Amino acid sequence: MTTLTAPPTTAPPPSRTRSSGGAGKWKRRLPLLPALVFTIVVTQLPFVATIVISTFQWNILKPGDRHFVGLSNFTFVFTDERLRTAVLNTVVLTASVVLISVLLGLGLAMLLDRRFVGRGLARTMLIAPFLVMPVAAALLWKHAIYNPDYGLLNGTLNAVYRLFGAANGPTVDWVSSYPMPAVVVSLVWQWTPFMMLILLAGLQAQPGDVLEAARVDGASALATFRHITLPHLRQYIELGILLGTIYVVQTFDAVYTITQGGPGSQTTNLPYEIYLTMFRKYEYGQAAAAGVVVVLGSIVIATFALRTIASLFREEVSR
Amino acid sequence: MTDVPVTRAAVAVPGTGLRKLLRRRQDDQEAAARLSPLWTFVAWLATLAFFAPVAWMVLTSFHQEADAATNPPTPFASLTFDQYRLLFSRDITPFLLNSAMASVISTLLVLAFAVPTAYALSIKPVQKWTDVMFFFLSTKFLPAIAALLPVYLIVKDAGMLDNVWTLIVLYTAMNLPIAVWMMRSFLAEVPKEILEAAEVDGAGLLTVLWRIVAPVAAPGLAATSLICFIFSWNEFMFAVNLTATNASTAPVFLVGFITSEGLFLARLCAAATLVSLPVLIAGFAAQDKLVRGLSLGAVK
Asked: Which among A154, B99, B241, B255 could disulfide-bond with B250, CB atoms 3.0 to 4.6 Å apart, if both were Cys?
């Protein structure tokens, strides 16, 4: 069945010979043409436009002054202090959210990979954070949990302090004091279930006989995990990291809602900075150039992601 | 596998080895059995910790404002439907309708595009079908923010700002790759032998689709639509930047309502619960297929 991985040349082509070339090929292609044309028009043309706009000096506050400037917007993008901060913030935000949620997701997946009373219910409850609308989740964290006066976090601290006889708990303004961790925690809360689902599927796809054999051989739980489970999980972990990165790099809702990029530009990530350049500074050329840079960065990540998906995909097709 | 036996079994001395080994295994199993309630406890503790913010959101949504903003928190305050009543009197309805229209119509369009495409990628595959698959997937990896400016300019020129149909077109493009990948993985499960047998018997295309493909693919179709629905319903970036008053969706209502009315915690929680409810229901319904959709069909 491995021949299916290279279908154009090796798959048995009875219908191709039957339909004698051109017309048959087009008959096969016909069903996918609408989707292909639609996708190219809606997703590829805007990027061509972005590239074109990125070579213009174009600020709608100065209407008469739109002209070709070559690559100078890119010079600006790579030298601008704010944009450099935004790049750094994007890396910090994405890396911490993805890594922490992979680790927590792995822990949860292993806890759920056992039989226990109410496992189905626990899994259902655990995916709930992922299903809460991202904007709603961000508002929930900002106002109902982080609020210094009556948020759940300070409220609980206060209750605990009083329980132990202290007068009042500390009043921490979480979002102002720890802006980046505040955003990271709310995103980790949303993304951990995603990682858990992928890793749990990975754990459950483990061949049972290998685990049984390890147990019969007297391998300790730790050794089994290190030498059998972890290597098996590797591609699932990679997939989780890559897909998570692709989604979290694009984070807009949480930054927009919880910190609006502040204080200062401490939590401004690239999507939010591009948004500000576009709709607050009206510097279309610069926004487009930053967009091109983001796309190039994404292509790097996507190449790795596509490779991982391709290997899982080949496995599936050849199965 | 080769490094594994370097454990207790390898230490076993000949003669007494087997008995010792058996006792060890018994010990291990007993230890595991003793630890089992502990791990169950940890699992439930972690679950409750993750679920707590959701529970708090729902609980607060049934409180009066005065009980919602207390320190320390008062979880056992009396319950009320007032916040939900207020939301509907504050006209959340048009926003919910816009969200419903954008997500339902875009999901239907996605299926209309994706099902024939998946057919041409699995049942009667075109040449280089894997390349086509990966082209669709690569569009999903391009950050939407980079498309915002040109999309905004084009939509403005076309007089389509603040129009639900603009969102419908964008959401269709956004979800199409996911749907193509998911539907292909479901259609690939249709047994080839039966398809060939049907063709030999001279069954027409419609008969094949209806009698053979549909029964196998129907659950996949349902799961795919639920996932497309979830992503469209939650989308915020295009919605907040391309709509103003007529076409705004539920997430835009949420942020607008905070800035325009000041902070009413209980009502915010009611709004957050209300707008999340359709996705929570869809997600719980599609639980088993959720991971397949999120991993683009790569993980089952």
From this structure: B99
Q: Is residue A39 within 8 Å of B136, Cβ to Cβ? A: yes
What residues contact A147, with CB distance under 8 A and at least 6 apart?
Answer: A154, B265
| pLDDT at residue B295 tops 60 | yes
Supply A84's token pair: 């450099």
Q: Is 0.85 exceeded by the ipTM?
A: no
Q: Where are the domains of chain B?
A: 8-82, 90-294
Task: Check whether B53 has a pLDDT greater than 90.
Answer: yes
Give the tens place of pLDDT for each residue, B142-196.
Answer: 888 888 988 998 999 889 899 999 999 999 999 998 899 888 888 888 888 888 8
Q: Is A67 helix (H, G, I), strand (E, B) or coil?
A: strand
Give chain A's domains with CATH numbers. Answer: 81-318 (1.10.3720.10)
Cβ count within 10 A of residue A235: 17
Task: For domain B90-294, give the CATH superfamily.
Answer: MetI-like (1.10.3720.10)
Chain A hits for B180, CB-CB cut-off 8 Å, are: 35
B146 chain-A contacts, CB cut-off 8 A: 47, 50, 274, 291-292, 294-295
Nearest by Cα to B119 from B225, B203, B216 = B216
> Do A39 and B72 count as a contact with CB atoms less than 8 A apart?
no
- The confidence score (pLDDT) of residue B32 equals 64
B104 touches chain A (CB under 8 A): no
Please give the helix or strand (H or E) that residue B297 lies within, else none. none
